[in-house]
Amino acid sequence: MSDGIKTICCIGAGYVGGPTMAVIADKCKYLKVIVVDLNKDKINSWNNEDLTKLPVYEPGLKDLIKRCRGKNLFFSTNIQQSIAESDMVFISVNTPTKQTGLGAGEASDLKFIESSARSIAEFAIGHTIVVEKSTIPVKTAEVIKTILISSQKGSEKIPEKSFTVLSNPEFLAEGTAIDDLINPSRVLIGGESKTSINALVNIYKNWVSEEKIIKTNIWSSELSKLTANAFLAQRVSSINSISALCEKTGADISEVSKAVGMDYRIGRHFLKAGPGFGGSCFKKDILNLVYICKLYDLNEVANYWNEVLKINHWQQNRLTNIIVKKLFGTVTNKKIGILGFAFKANTNDTRESPAINICSNLLMEGAKLTIYDPKVKFKDISNSLKNLKNAVNDSFKIEENVCMSSSFEQLANGSDAILILTEWVEFKEIEWLKISKLMRKPSWIFDCRDIIDINHFRESDLNIWKIGFGSNMDNLK
Ligand code: NAD
Ligand code: UGA
Hints:
Rossmann fold; binds uridine-5'-diphosphate-glucuronic acid; single chain; 477 residues; 2 domains; binds nicotinamide-adenine-dinucleotide
């Protein structure tokens, strides 16, 4: 059943590496699973006795860690030993957009992939199957292979070693990662070596039915991952563009989404209008796609995908402009409450969250922000907003303009406006009549996630703005 695969290792203990390996360990008790990272603090957090201190928040993750950690799942900084004892090594490191040099602002920075490949080349013993789990540009497997092959020759010091490379992109979404891993829509494996592919298939077969396991060539596998994210992001930009038209024409985006999505050819998922997509991947993966298209002189294709990003940015700025206009054209020194800073519900991740851009815009306009998010810490918010200092002025201090709130009441107290930026389920249960009494008048609620029930506001004197909601609020009151 295990094809001689007894120990596997994953380089990168982040949002993908940690949850993915926890599920593999839980489903394959015969395997020893080691997750390694250069970041000591992160590994310490994964090993923390207090499971509320894990570095990643995902529903269901704590239980998995409790069941497997110390039994067949280990978190370690000992990269050398972990690679040496593993038959299969997953690379699950970050692949951010390059900040400087060739391809800056578009291409993926492969420095972490390269350093992982070099570590594998150096420390592996015998035959090792290397699995790309990170999202990478098409043809990256070639780079990994070249690095690995250059170390393949035996020497007196290094025992003979050999490698095969597979592509096995991850499709989990944050907030539902454990469910997605346990019930994946598909598992994609690209590669040339049938034996290695089968070794990986045999791991997944422990809980995924074989019809869901797709085997392709390695380049199709790499490109499918980028394409899937681009298509998902494109749907969000499409519905967001229509949300603006709804507001002008009297249509309601939730009704339009429902009517459009009931066509089985279109489907109902990913048609929820909002403040623009966030998360660490959509933007970087589309930029990467754009870069690759340009490399192959496919400029029209590059421009097409770039528009998905432009609409996303435009949507965030559009919302800020609406907020400022409704508040008499100025938010200087006004207290604005922010409900949610994570890029979506059920995660503590703030990377590329639309809240970053919207809060930055408001701070540049002089607003004072009070933020409530059930899982995001002030240090992550402050870190996300650190570039603001240059945009405002040298003396601008985040802690003087942004504070955290531990309750809705504290957040509402004296606020001119409250913005809903993440769709946390607890925001749907807020007692708005109570909140309304604490706010400065006239007070505004901006529902940028279309989650509140307008009926809750009939009795209150709050002014409501809902994304994509073109119906006349006065008629509803
Ligand atoms: P992350 O930043 O949360 O974690 C990556 C980890 O890799 C970091 O902890 C970093 O310290 C570690 N690392 C980097 N170089 C290393 C090295 N040489 N040796 C050891 N550790 C090293 O990133 P993530 O969100 O888990 O994403 C990882 C990859 O998976 C990316 O390519 C991403 O595009 C892809 N992906 C992410 C998601 C998601 O939801 N976050 C979903 C699918 C795919
Ligand atoms: C996304 C994909 O859904 C995963 O399949 C993929 O593996 C992952 O990227 C990745 O490669 O990193 P993720 O970014 O975690 O997952 O979360 P999504 O649920 O896709 O949401 C992304 C953003 O789009 C969020 O800001 C979300 O609020 C927004 N969104 C999503 C909408 O505004 N409307 C929708 O209808 C759906």
